[in-house]
Amino acid sequence: MEIEERDYLTIGEFGSLRNVDSKALRYYERVGALIPAYIDPHTQYRYYTVSQLVDLDTILLCLEMGIPLKGTSKYRGKDGVLAVKKLFEDGKRITQDKIEKYKTTLMRLQYALDCISNNDRYKDRHDYYVRRINRRYILKKPLEDPKDFASFSKQSLALFTQAKERGFDSGYTFPIGILLERGLQSSINASIFLEVLNPPTDDERIFVLKEKEYYCYQESQTALFYSHNVYESILAEQEDADLVVITNMTLDTYRHDIFPIEVQIST
C-alpha cells in the first residue's frame, strides 16, 4: 500500500505537536491506547493523522488527571465515539480537587516559613525573654504518664490520626507540644497537643491559645516532653503562671541530635 505523505505525519512530527517523544507514542501503541493510522510493512515506520491529536490529547489529559491508560477506554464507546463532555467534566472536577490540595500545601508551607522567620530572632538565646505569639488552635488530650520518648511518640501519632479523621490540617513543623495548666489543690493538668491550621472557629473540640506575650526560655533536652517531675518543677518555679506551653522551635536548619525546645509561660 502506497501512502500519500501529505496525508500523514511521521511519529516524530506527530509527537512534536504535543511535545511527546517517540518512545512514549510507541508505549501508547503497545498498550492499545493510540494505534498509528498506518505502519509501513517494509520499514515499520509509524504514521499518524492530524485527527488523531484528539486521541493523544485524551491520553495526555487522562494521565494528567492520574487516570491510568487502561482507564481511558471508559470515555470511548464500542463504536469508537469519544464522550468528550464526560471527559472534560471529570477533568474539571479532578483539577479542582488538586487546586484545593495545592492551596492546603501552600498554606502549610507558608505557616512553616512564618514559624522559621518568627523564631529566627530568638535563635540560640540562653536567657529569659518576652515574645508575642499569635493565636493558636490546638487539639489536646490528657497526657498519659509516658516512660520514654517512644510512648510520647505513640500519643503524638494518635493526635495526628484524630486530626486527619476530623479533616484538620497541621503544619510541616512537628507541631506537637505539652500544655500545663494548674488544677485543684496544686495539681497539674498536663495535656499533649497538636496545633492545627484554620479549623472551624465554632468547633468545640478546638482549644484556643490566645495571642499574647509569653515569658520564654529555651531548653535542648527532649526530657521536657515526657517527665512529669519536670512539669512540677516548672510550675513550682513560675508561681504566677496560669499555663505553660512546651513546644519545639522550628528553625532554618534541622539536626536529629539537636532539638531546641521553647518553654512559653503565660501569666
Description:
By secondary structure, the protein is an alpha+beta fold. It has 2 domains: 5-82, Multidrug-efflux Transporter Regulator, Chain: A, Domain 2, CATH 1.10.1660; 128-266, Multidrug-efflux Transporter 1 Regulator Bmrr, Chain A (Alpha-Beta Barrel), CATH 3.20.80. The protein is built from 6 helices and 12 strands. It has helices at 11-16, 22-30, 53-65, 84-120, 149-165, 228-237; strands spanning 9-10, 38-39, 46-48, 129-133, 136-142, 169-170, 176-182, 188-197, 207-209, 212-219, 243-248, 261-266. Strands 4, 5, 6, 7, 8, 9, 10, 11 and 12 form a 9-stranded antiparallel beta sheet that branches. Strands 1-3-2 form a 3-stranded antiparallel beta sheet. A hairpin with a 6-residue loop joins strand 2 (38-39) and strand 3. Helix 3 (53-65) packs across helix 4. The longest helix has 37 residues, at 84-120. The protein is elongated.
Summarize the structure.
The protein has 267 residues and is an alpha+beta fold. It is built from six helices and twelve strands. The chain has helices at 11-16, 22-30, 53-65, 84-120, 149-165, 228-237, and strands spanning 9-10, 38-39, 46-48, 129-133, 136-142, 169-170, 176-182, 188-197, 207-209, 212-219, 243-248, 261-266.
